[in-house]
Amino acid sequence: MENKISSESLKLEFEVAKEDFSRAGEASSNIKKVLRQLGIDAQIIRRVAIATYEAEINIVIHSEGGKITLYIYPEFIQITAADKGPGIENIELAMKEGFSTASNRVRELGFGAGMGLPNMKRCCDTFTIESERGKSTVVTMLINMNKGGDNHDNH
């Protein structure tokens, strides 16, 4: 884990290894602890924790490894999950709840239900996904810090 502090943001960075199920969830757990220490609103922490956990699990299951980077600004939190391939063949299909390309082995471990990307999108205010077949996938999520204007209470 790498921490960098600037005048306006805090950066947290976590490496995520391919098929490392023993450490899956470690990055999102550490992120949650840091946000609690910073006094961030509990609902925002919950949304960030779910989004980062889903991103982390997707990297473990579907990629050659990658990185989750979190920037904490006064107005919002930006989460970027970038992997080292293989990319997503059909993003529209991958965004459908229940669609999964996870192996039977992964499903037997209790992962790969096809809810990762939909859950990530549900937890954030802005969601973008870019993927190049054979190269990488980058998911960028923004969660606004405004406590009153949150419309995600029903998720």
Protein described:
This protein is α+β, with helices and mostly antiparallel strands and 155 residues long. 32% of the residues lie in helices and 27% in strands. The chain contains five helices and six strands; from the N terminus they run ββααββαααββ. The chain has helices at residues 26-37, 42-62, 91-94, 104-108, 116-123, and strands at 2-5, 10-16, 66-72, 76-83, 126-132, 136-144. Strands 1-2-3-4-6-5 form a six-stranded antiparallel β-sheet, with helices on one face. A hairpin with a 3-residue loop joins β3 (66-72) and β4 (76-83). α1 runs antiparallel to α2 (42-62) and α2 (42-62) packs antiparallel against α5 (116-123). The radius of gyration is 15 Å and the shape is globular. The chain starts with a strand and ends in an 11-residue tail after the last strand. Residues 148-155 have low confidence and may be disordered.
Task: Detail the topology: elements first, then pairings.
Layout: E1 2-5, E2 10-16, H1 26-37, H2 42-62, E3 66-72, E4 76-83, H3 91-94, H4 104-108, H5 116-123, E5 126-132, E6 136-144
Antiparallel strand pairs: 1-2, 2-3, 3-4, 4-6, 5-6
Helix pairs in contact: 1-2, 2-5
